[in-house]
Design goal:
CATH topology: HIT family, subunit A
Order of helices and strands: HEEEHEEH
Strand order of the largest sheet: 1-2-3-5-4
Helix content: 25-40%
CATH class: Alpha Beta
Oligomer: single chain
Shape: globular
CATH superfamily: HIT-like
Largest sheet: 5 strands, antiparallel
Radius of gyration: 17 Å
CATH architecture: 2-Layer Sandwich
């Protein structure tokens, strides 16, 4: 795995505004926030994408993510928020270490903007795809 800014933060070489830390997870404020309270949640395990992350680290993030969302919302007063996680450069990942964004949405102009170009589903193709995914599990 390539050296990342998150690896440097984990080693204490770059300071951060820590929100939470345990043996597997670190959460801190984003230095380029989309809104007040924009936080990052990262595993301490070095994995570039979510599919490469261990079950143990994934479960640790899953346990703390809702708690962090509640704390960010309480501290900022925002009632709505996005949780964003990107995998690979084509999916807009910029730092190649798994990370989740908690992005408060205090109003229509702050926070994350999203386009959702939905298409109609082809049910026959979907049935085949669902079978292939089940088989891969």
């Amino acid at each position: 795995m390539a050296e990342t800014v998150f690896a440097k933060i984990l080693r204490g070489e770059i300071p951060c505004h820590r929100l939470y830390e345990d043996e597997l997870v670190l959460a801190f404020l984003d230095v380029g926030p989309l809104s007040e309270g924009h936080a990052l949640v990262i595993p301490k395990e070095p994995a570039e994408t979510l599919d490469a992350l261990s079950d143990e680290s994934s479960a640790a993030i899953g346990r703390v993510l809702p708690r962090l969302c509640r704390a960010v919302m309480k501290a900022t007063g925002a009632k709505e928020y996005n949780v964003l996680q990107n995998n690979g450069p084509g999916a807009h990942q910029a730092v190649f270490h798994v990370h989740f964004h908690i992005i408060p949405k205090p109003n229509a102009t702050e926070g994350l903007g999203v386009k959702w170009p939905a298409k109609a589903i082809d049910h026959a193709a979907a049935a085949k795809l669902a079978e292939a995914i089940r088989a891969a599990l």
